[in-house]
Design a protein that fits this description.
Distance between the termini: 33 Å
Oligomer: single chain
Strand content: under 5%
């Protein structure tokens, strides 16, 4: 239960949550919220990217913009 096979559907679920929180959000706004909520958002790298998405934080980031 790890890796991209598991992370992709989880991230898609958070993206759906973001669109439910703000149906008018653009794809770029959703992507920015997902990235900004990652645990490595301050220093993304080539191994883990922006890191593990934080769903509640992503919603706050999106609706508070």
């Amino acid at each position: 239960v790890n890796g991209t096979s598991f992370s992709c559907p989880l991230t898609a679920g958070v993206a759906a949550l973001l669109l439910q929180a703000d149906p008018a959000a653009t794809a770029e706004q959703v992507r920015a919220a997902l990235r900004a909520s990652g645990h490595q958002a301050g220093a993304p790298d080539n191994l883990l990217g922006w890191g593990i998405v934080n769903g509640p934080a992503a919603v706050r980031i999106l609706v508070d913009r």
